[in-house]
């Protein structure tokens, strides 16, 4: 019996030791994720702690995490069983940032109003463009919210907005979300970063066919990498985009102060232009490096707001910056579903807004150009459907995609923008091909019906 007892104790000890080896290094990542999300959800989105725990952090292994909000200092601190504590700090105008080596009081403080040029006509852009939602479209939209088991939801859709020919023809929100709630776009932020690079290319600040001339790369083969290769994720830089492991992506986002600096530090793994690898690192390199073209950090920070968001009336939009004051161009943009829809509408309108040119048609075409090696799935920081990945969507469809199944689908041939935001933990739990098909079918039926009615009225 004693021998069996010692064998069992040894087995338990080995199991605990293996668990520690497996999970302890990940605790810092888990703490970083929780602190960052708790901070942003509290101070940017205005969500309560119950919603954050039940929605944002309601998946393994984050169920173990606990966080504390300090509203006076505007910080969130997280840990698991008191181990590997991490803190994120909110800065007015810049959202939240993790502080690792930098202390909270030393984190870059913007402390200025980013939305300083509101136009009343743009604030009410949807007012004159909203029409009644048809029963068939209501049914198609509702399908995004339907759960097989309401007590164990898997889709967790939070918002849907559908635009047709520039009109708001349908929208719906989860109970805890309103049309005024900013929602995280995750990697849809990459498409915003591409848009900013495009605006700078349109203004001749840079030529995407040329090398980046990044100082840190001047003395090795990385100096051959072009802006276009970064945009199409053909840079050749080593990268592992795995959110279930201690990868480059999670280390950069959840255990770094200077996110762009981390991304620029990775070595070359293949010849630039030959291999396609999805990489949040390249997006943050772009977001960091465009700062070189501004006279001051404040000019850099204000650029997206003055030049893009304010001009579209996207007053809820915030791109968060890291602790050094550089945009996290891969992941951290927040906006209401309606404001996200405006970004899709800008692309649907070939870069024009209210008769004003915001973005060149050349850039609109470039982002839809399939990247070499991507199997016709990816363009210039946008996902493309030219390979027929979604059979129910026309081949000219292209989209902004993000973690937890954020989507803005742009379909020029149907004059449609379809926005879906939520927290779907497993990709297979939301069938976008089927749902897009339902939306398209409903809109086409309604359009044909309205055309028939109009024809009948004219004959009478």
Automatic annotation (TrEMBL):
It comes from the Bacteria. SUPFAM superfamilies: beta-lactamase/transpeptidase-like (SSF56601). Residues 159-421 form the Beta-lactamase-related domain. Gene3D superfamilies: DD-peptidase/beta-lactamase superfamily. InterPro entries: Beta-lactam-related, Beta-lactam/transpept-like, Diverse_Enzym_Activities. It holds the Pfam family Beta-lactamase. PANTHER family: BETA-LACTAMASE-RELATED, BETA-LACTAMASE-RELATED DOMAIN-CONTAINING PROTEIN. This is Beta-lactamase family protein.
